[in-house]
Predict the 3D structure of the following.
Amino acid sequence: MKKRNVSPARIDLLQSLTGLILVIFVWSHMFFESSILLGKDAMYWVTKMFEGEHLFGKPYPILVSIVAAIVFLLVALHAILAMRKFPGNSRQYAAFHRHMGALQHSDTTLWYVQVITGFSLFFLVSAHLYTVFSQPENIGPYASSDRVWTQRFWILYAMLLVAVHVHAGIGIYRLAIKWGALPSANFQAVRARLKVAMWGIIFFFTALGTASLVTYMKIGFDHADRAGERYVPATERQQGGR
């Protein structure tokens, strides 16, 4: 009896796991990033938490660089695993477009959207992570806002915001379809509900990210004439005034 090759299944599982880990990271990151909506002091507290100040008594920005490096490796691994399913040349792309047009199947279209957003994300995420990796000390209410507004990073972040949440939302939907124990009796109804949840998640995180980005832009605009100045939280200002 010929031995069954399980390598493709294992690679597929690894792709799914890396994708799931990255989605959890992106959504968690979005909540932490949106702390700016609660005020500059809240965002400053979150920044120092990731630098380890609350645990070690002093900030270590290198911790942020380490996280950025790990995330980049996960992104690279996920991209390499996913690329094996992409059309390999223009002829294959043309055949896929004909196939997609003939089928008119929404899940096939969603997969293609994932291909496009995934391709763009490798470049957008790389640029963002390089900035975080190389300048971990330049994160904070003023430092981040100056980067967003004065250094015009809002252009990168706006594109990244849309691409990452569309990609993540579709990815979670496809993981649920692929690995979830969905009932066969009413599979179509369950899939329709999952699609509604997918679009709801995409809308929620895109709206949250947009509100956060606009807030950073507003702070950066107001702080433009003092770009480079670091934020001092209210507690430290009060202690300094004594």
